């Protein structure tokens, strides 16, 4: 055993999204030796997907390590269950029902495979290689098409009793509020703070303010990127879209802080490109809703890692997790 | 070392409330060998309080164990900090500022002293000796004068970065809602689901329904006990008070479940005497606000331990915690 040079060991980190799957070969130092991607949405059958993924990855593996140096596979995927190694009823994937994904991967690749949800994987990436290095208690909030979260407490990811902990995007921030387009719940954080939610807010607000620059765009082009462009040009309505989003997000974050009292909250994902337009109102409303004992203690920061890398690094870290 | 008979070792468990302090000598099996109490609110100075506590407890200690068998003191107190052994700015205690309580106790009693907040102590009590035995993930909600909480995840209490985690009573369940009488926050869980909050709801509702039995009582007598008496007699307004309370509590619990995905939520404290009047609407609204993957999984149960015993047992367990 002493003959194994740990620095030469390699893990395959995989980040499965609804559209694309990104993967990387990662070593113990968190260096990505090789990256690549395949489409996720092209495969109606998970078997074909795994077959093609194998064909794409196998030559790269051969190039970078011997089979003895290949320690395993870590996967971040929507609705992935850490305890069971399954993907369960993921609304954004074509594979329906409960998929025993980890077992299928192990059969194909001949190495152990561990999984967790995509936001948890990103949180692990930040913990090991990003802005959360050395932290024992932090919450990662991913603000993309949806809102995901990974919660680290006492140095460990919270998986909960059934492996599904940390669905903070689906917590209700405004009872009886905006109906979610897919879950049907009313007033969830995701309905307001995701890129999708921001587009909904923008469409409502531009209808109220005919003079807004946002009205220069066709309906289908209104997204968080366009809102950001208009905000940068000083459009008060676009700025108000982010302020309102930040208020809802900040109120939610205050509740999360009173739950697990983290050292920091890391924001991650496409929406954070809006910078201070989103960060400042979020911080204001988080602080305003905290008990005094929690105030001005919790760092609210943007992720430092490249978005794609964080998930790959975090997923690969599952392989070496104790 | 082998000569120590563990079953003879004793811990002093202390539960500090705003009015009374209860204590017990507890052995390794969770048997309370001796119980007692002193007033908390009689002492303007914490030094006098500790002096009198010592005078009360010392003879009992002498009776039940040698100094070698006395392993330490565990304390549950409002706003107690686990990491620092302090009581910090507790609104319901007369001792203001930051009190180095654990150090003061150690100096007086000559043994180590550990502390945590009262709800955490009760959660530990349930984990070791009550309804949560064998569980790794559960949330304890105490519904008394206020609303407290203790969160166990992966078999351990969540203390957070600063030792103040688990202030779920102060999470906002209705933004812009009822103003809290002491914190000033708007729409916190405590403002609705505590005994104090229930009294507020009852006073509002009886004013709307002149025919309610609740109107037979003078203003100052309206409390959760009176509401329960009227509900038992079939008064629709009193029943509605608990239904409304359960709705707010259930909505909050759904958010907590999506945070840490517990196996069970334990309800504890005076308010649970209302039984199904509070339990049924709480369960209904919890389930209604959960994502499908969490539905019908989480047990919602009442504590099995005597209220006073749970806190004493949990506090004493701090002494032997790894």
3D structure, described in words:
Two copies of one chain form a homodimer. Helices cover 37% and strands 20% of the residues of chain A. Chain A has 322 residues and is α/β, with parallel strands linked by helices. Chain A folds into two domains: 6-124 and 308-320, ATPase, nucleotide binding domain (Nucleotidyltransferase, domain 5), CATH 3.30.420; 134-304, ATPase, nucleotide binding domain (Nucleotidyltransferase, domain 5). Chain A has a five-stranded mixed beta sheet, sandwiched between helices. A five-stranded mixed beta sheet of chain A has the order 11-10-9-12-13, sandwiched between helices. A three-stranded antiparallel beta sheet of chain A has the order 5-6-7. In chain A, strand 1 (10-16) and strand 2 (20-27) form a beta hairpin. Chain A is globular. The two termini of chain A are 18 Å apart. The mean pLDDT of chain A is 93. At the A-B interface, helix 7 of A face helix 7 of B.
Summary, kept brief:
With 322 residues, chain A is α/β, with parallel strands linked by helices. Helices cover 37% and strands 20% of the residues of chain A.
Order of H and E elements of chain A: EEEHEEEEHEHEEEHHHHEHEH
Shape of chain A: globular
Average pLDDT of chain A: 93
Regions with little confidence, pLDDT below 50 for 5+ residues of chain A? none
Structural class of chain A: alpha/beta
The CATH H-level homologous superfamily of the largest domain in chain A: ATPase, nucleotide binding domain
- CATH topology term of the largest domain in chain A: Nucleotidyltransferase, domain 5
Q: Mind summarizing the main beta sheet of chain A?
A: 5 strands, mixed
Q: What is the CATH architecture assignment of the largest domain in chain A?
A: 2-Layer Sandwich
The Cα radius of gyration of chain A reads 20 Å
- What oligomeric state is this? homodimer
Total domain count of chain A: 2
Helicity level of chain A: 25-40%
Distance between the termini of chain A: 18 Å
Tell me the strand order in the biggest sheet of chain A. Answer: 3-2-1-4-8
The helix tally of chain A amounts to: 9
- Biggest interface found: A-B, 45 and 45 residues
Beta strand % of chain A? 15-25%
Q: What's the number of extended β-strand segments of chain A?
A: 13
CATH classification, class level of the largest domain in chain A: Alpha Beta
């Amino acid at each position: 055993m002493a003959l194994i040079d740990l620095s030469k060991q390699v893990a395959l980190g995989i980040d499965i999204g609804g559209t694309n799957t990104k993967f990387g070969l990662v070593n113990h130092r968190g260096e990505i030796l090789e990256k690549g991607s395949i489409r996720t949405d092209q495969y109606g059958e998970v078997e074909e997907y795994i077959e093609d993924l194998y064909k794409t990855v196998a030559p790269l593996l051969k190039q970078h390590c011997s089979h003895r140096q290949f320690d395993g596979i870590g996967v971040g995927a929507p609705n992935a269950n850490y305890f069971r190694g399954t993907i369960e009823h993921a609304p954004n994937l074509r594979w329906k029902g409960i998929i025993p994904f980890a077992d299928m991967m192990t059969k194909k690749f001949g190495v152990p495979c561990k999984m967790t949800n995509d936001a948890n994987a990103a949180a692990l990436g930040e913990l090991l290689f990003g802005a959360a290095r050395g932290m024992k208690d932090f919450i990662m909030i991913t603000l993309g098409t949806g809102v995901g979260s990974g919660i680290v407490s006492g140095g460990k990811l919270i998986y909960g009793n059934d492996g599904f902990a940390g669905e903070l995007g689906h917590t209700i921030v405004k009872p009886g509020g905006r109906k979610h387009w897919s879950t049907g719940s009313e007033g969830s954080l995701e309905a307001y703070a995701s890129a999708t939610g921001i587009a909904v807010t923008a469409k409502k607000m531009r209808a109220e303010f005919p003079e807004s620059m946002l009205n220069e765009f066709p309906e289908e082009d209104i997204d968080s990127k366009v809102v950001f462009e208009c905000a940068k040009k000083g459009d008060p309505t676009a700025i108000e879209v982010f302020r309102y989003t930040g208020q809802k997000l900040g109120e939610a974050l205050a509740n999360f802080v009173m739950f697990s009292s983290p050292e920091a909250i890391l924001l991650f994902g496409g929406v954070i490109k809006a910078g201070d337009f989103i960060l400042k109102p979020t911080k204001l409303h988080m602080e305003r809703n905290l008990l005094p004992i929690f105030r001005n203690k919790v760092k609210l920061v943007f992720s430092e890692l490249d978005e794609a890398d964080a998930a790959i690094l975090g997923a690969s870290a599952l392989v070496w997790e104790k």
